[in-house]
Design brief:
By secondary structure, the protein is mainly alpha-helical. 67% of the residues lie in helices and 0% in strands. It has 2 domains: 93 residues, no CATH class; 131 residues, Leucine-rich Repeat Variant (Alpha Horseshoe), CATH 1.25.10. The termini are far apart.
Amino acid sequence: MAGRQGGKGGKDGKRPAIRPVVKAALAWLEDKSTDKDRANLVRFGINAKPAFGASMTNIQALAKRLGRNHELGAALWETGWYEARTLAAFVDDPALVTSAQMDRWCRDFDNWAICDTLCFRLFDQTPHAWAKVAQWKDKRDEFQKRAAFALLASLAGHDKRSGDKPFLEGLRFVEAAATDDRNFVKKGVNWALRGVGRRNATLNAAAVAVAQRLADSPEVAARWVGKDALREFARLAKR
């Protein structure tokens, strides 16, 4: 399988054709599929179709062989296969990912795993990440809206440059969305709240205040988000 770092390959520096690489990647993923991994998709509530049933370990191993390549990432996504789209998160070049591409891929999200992997492994490294948190937070679709908060949680863990201001704004988004009782939205909101609260002392204090207000809310979903976050923050305080 022809792979290359930085999108270059071949003795003359030209890129090899993408289609054969995609075909070989799909064949490799299918070969690595197992009944156990197919069962795990169901076990973990990953409603992905079509899917081979290849493990994340194997997907990441293949990503290392292929290296970063923006064109390959796009081609893998277009196949529609769950494992190929997961692979795209590790292969695509975040510096070359466009705002429009992020919107297109977000519209394709149909399960929590592909949403979270793209946000955690690719989207949070792009220059458009913060804009997408603000843009997607009001989406109607469950997984598109979850993407805003999965992305905020990912930024809380990975963004080493931003100060507190965008995260404080993110807490406003969290509080506004916490009444959404859809399972994958409220869990994404909770993830973001906990992630911001772990970032530093200032943001922890702000996140605890939000969590307390949510815990006291008459809304069931908001109470769950707030109480679960407060338990997490209490555990952190004991360390």
